[in-house]
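quick one before i forget lol
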Amino acid sequence: MRITNPAKLSSTTGLFSRIGTADWRKGRSIAFVVIASLVGVFVVAGKAGIRINMTPSLPVGLYVEAASTSPLVEFCPAEPAASLAARRAYRTQGNCPDGASPLLKPVVAATGDIVEISRAGISVNAHSLVNSAPLIKDTEGRPLLHFPYGRYVVVPGQVWVVSSYNARSFDSRYYGPISTSAIRAHLRPLITQ
């Protein structure tokens, strides 16, 4: 048997032969349109006051800006908690001044409330919060330092934020109260799991 044109021989079959003949320019165009569409959705959602939560501290889903009486807040944490959270990827890239994403947490104590923090967890006005015990290590086994145990009266201009939804939430049990000036928005759930 004599082969007249060895260049016509192909060892690829099925899917691989189709990949080899695919029009890559068309694929790049489709990828660009998909990426541009996703970016557009995020920009429009942000302008409409919609936040997307993918963290385990709260139910995954969409949250929308709400009245200032809503207890769920978005804020940029202060140092040193901000750097720790960004370095350990508790926060992703975002639009806070440090380049990382803001946190979404429920406010559990405001001016005049009495907060007690102990090994067992946080209580507000003598009511214990579930899932609020400070942990000594994060999910990667890295040490976590809790806010000093004790009894605190919340002063004007500060609030305590604690997520009882997840025992591993990075919240006031580790960094104490936050300044109300750090609050960027009040939110409410729109669509969550």
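fyi The mean pLDDT is 86.
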